[in-house]
Amino acid sequence: MEIHLCIVLIFVQHTRGFHGLKFTKSPANLTVTQGNMARLGCAIEGLMEPEIMWMKDGEKLYSTDQMYINLDPHHWETFHTVKSVQQQDAGKYWCEVENYGAVISSEPAWITVEGVPHFILEPQDVATFPGAPFNLTCAAVGPPEPVEVQWWLGGVKKGDFTPSPSVLVLPGVNDSLKFYCEAKNARGVSVSRTGTVYIKELPGSPAGIHVDQVSDNVTLMWTPGFTGHSSLSTCTIQMSKSSGRKVKLPDKQVSVPPFQYTIAGLSSHSNYSVRISCDNEIGSSPFSSWVDFQTPESVPSAAPKNLTFDLTEQQLSLTWAALREEDLNGRLLAYKLQWNLGGESQEPFLFKENFAHFSGGGRFFNATFQVSACTVAGCGPWSRPTLIIPASAVQAQTQRGHMWVGLILGLLVATVLGLLLTVLVHRRGKETQFGSVFKPAGTEAVVSFTAARSFSRQGPELPESTLDSLGINDDLKTKLQDVLISERLLTLGQMLGKGEFGSVREAFLKMEDSSMQKVAVKVLKTDINSSSDIEQCLKEAAYMKDFHHPNVIQLIGVSLHRRPQQRLPVPMVILPFMKHGDLHTFLLMSRLGHEPFSLSLQTLVRFMLDIARGMEYLSSKNIIHRDLAARNCMLNENMTVCVADFGLSKKIYSGDYYRQGSVSKLPVKWIALESLADNVYTTQSDVWAFGVTMWEIMALGQTPYPGVENSEIYEYLIKGERLKRPPDCPDEVYEIMHSCWSPVPKCRPSFQHLISQLDGFWDGLPSVPAKEPLLYVNIDGEMEADSGLGTGPGTMATGEPSWAVPWQCVGMEEDEKDWLVGSSGAGLAIGGDYRYIIGPCTVIDGDSGNSEDGLSEDTRDDDDDDGVTINV
């Protein structure tokens, strides 16, 4: 019962407050002298709590000192106070109350401020021609009224006070002057702002010319100079093009503002100069200084011409005309060669020069080739397709063409003669009683010819080699029986690469279920001439079949290629096909490819860890790699690095070192100091090469020791010099790779220790989000590598810690300390064994490791007819 009574009382109160709400007092009009206090009040009845809002000229007033007085229950009075009234306080005031969505307003009142006049129109600056008449206007109001105005020009009173508003008519001036007006009423005098009369003149030259290159257009932006007290209407742009000599281009007039202009139709990759002048109604400004800029590169506008070929069974040579500079539209990055065989597009090639050479010319029969020039902006149009066919086939086609031409001409002559004879027979048939002199034409003669001999690129099939025909021992036969693959199951494709010990080809292997697996086939050099050489290679393959490690390339099998007129076959090693190719080319592509991409530090360190784990596995199997480098590491489809090119290019021993028996082509810039001096290879010399491979990874494929010739490497190292820290390489990573280059082999870390160090560093790196799969494109090996030596430790002049200092470790013998020579002149006094240093007269490839050549050292063997001379 009590609850119901409370609800009824609250409802009654609300109902009363809504229906009985009214203002019992409204604000009154006030006239206040400027600077005095003004107070407005209003009262409302019917509110439980005060919620009264003051309004001025339609805007709410927010005051922290608003007062409320409780006159009776539900009856409130409030005040709005202005302590020091100014002209801006004048206006219309009233009170508002909002209750249940309804707004109730009081009657309005006005505050009128009396004081000195205030200006409603002050004098403005004027720009005029010399001697031209112009007007000046000034207006002020009270209260109190009236208000009178007087002018001052150049500090001198002009006439008497006149009623506001006042307009002063001037006949013209020749010099700049200042002016203002005074307004007077009963309360006092006010002074307006001071204006200036400016005399119009010529503008100043523009400044701050900026060239913004967007796509194929160039946008000029500039800041106008002194306007001459007159609006700028147009600007004139003068341009010239520099191509050996300056060529002036037509002027361009543009309307302003805005002070910018976009120019289209400029030549790509060209040097231009620009300057600007702007105009007002008086005339033109002086020109700005010349500003030089270069337009961005674009794709070439024409295709290379005259694509020709020279084809033999052993080699295909292609040449084409170099693209002209005016058609190139930039710096030539490469020529892109695409080809089609059997209606299917093949992987394209990139070449720096306007020629290409491929070995194994027979595989290109009936292929079509097209070439396009590429800049950093992209590749231009393609040349017309060129069909690759043998010269004999071309000659046969020419002969056939000549024969058909002769045959057609003969038939044409015979037809004409036949028509003539028919006419003669018809005429003579009427003249003789013995019938026609000529017999009617018989059946048409049959023309026959012998087809030219077709060109066959396949010789007679040779009998397949077997293990029994090699004369090897029974144990080796047993080991190889389950990995020997018939040559008939292999279909060899294009060359993937070529090295010191043979070539690698793409191939398809037919499986037991008749499916085809893409593989890589390593074909050893064709100079094998004894059963012992073949037996040694097969022994090494037998060892390889037991290797099982995710970072070591797996052996699929071995095949024997029978050669014409040769007693012994050539061993072929079948390996998995690596989708992303070798690590060296992949690193180069990230920096110099057609579509460069970023590789995070986490990715680079993971590459190093993969290689270290693979090498640790090999060393545990007593295998000495002897040719560890980025070019001999492969990337599979999961971006995992696998160590490759081991086992088959060197002998495997159960001992701990391998001594090479004769001098051959050596990757000098990856070889340890003791290997260069004494031709001795150990697991520790593999550690040295791993350090160089780490440097390659951090330098994104740059050739080690840039600027140092191969013949200078030994002397460079014996003085204590080492590879400098690559840019952006953390000190911790450089310290790890530098420890691999100790001149004393026993002081170098083991692969197990290297894994531990790299793993610890990798764990400390921040995680990176997964990215899109990297694009990989085959590219010519001859990419330009950076030529900088790098900065960082090792450059003592920089004040950084020097790494070219003695390496020492526990257990070092006294004679081993002879290696520890600082980077000073003392190193020059040490005599070295130069028997194995590359020189112009040695058999070692002098091009290997050249800093201007992105190709690896083992890709330049000209003695092997089975290989190509470029990396693809």
Shape: elongated
CATH topology of the largest domain: Transferase(Phosphotransferase), domain 1
CATH architecture of the largest domain: Orthogonal Bundle
DSSP strand (E) fraction? Answer: 25-35%
State the end-to-end distance: 99 Å
Low-confidence stretches: 1-18, 430-460, 647-664, 771-806, 821-872
CATH class of the largest domain: Mainly Alpha
Count the helices. How many?
12
Total strands: the figure is 45
- How many structural domains in the coordinates? 7
The major pleated sheet works out as:
6 strands, mixed
So, the CATH homologous superfamily of the largest domain? Transferase(Phosphotransferase) domain 1
As a percent range, the share of helical residues equals 10-25%
Structure description:
With 872 residues, the chain is of the alpha+beta class. It folds into seven domains: 17-114, Immunoglobulin-like (Sandwich), CATH 2.60.40; 118-199, Immunoglobulins (Immunoglobulin-like, Sandwich); 207-294, Immunoglobulin-like (Sandwich), CATH 2.60.40; 308-389, Immunoglobulin-like (Sandwich); 398-424; 476-576, 2-Layer Sandwich (Phosphorylase Kinase, domain 1); 595-767 and 775-782 and 816-859, Orthogonal Bundle (Transferase(Phosphotransferase), domain 1), CATH 1.10.510.10. The protein is 18% helix and 28% strand. It contains twelve helices and 45 strands. Strands 2, 4, 5, 8, 9 and 10 form a six-stranded mixed β-sheet that branches. Helix 9 packs antiparallel against helix 11.
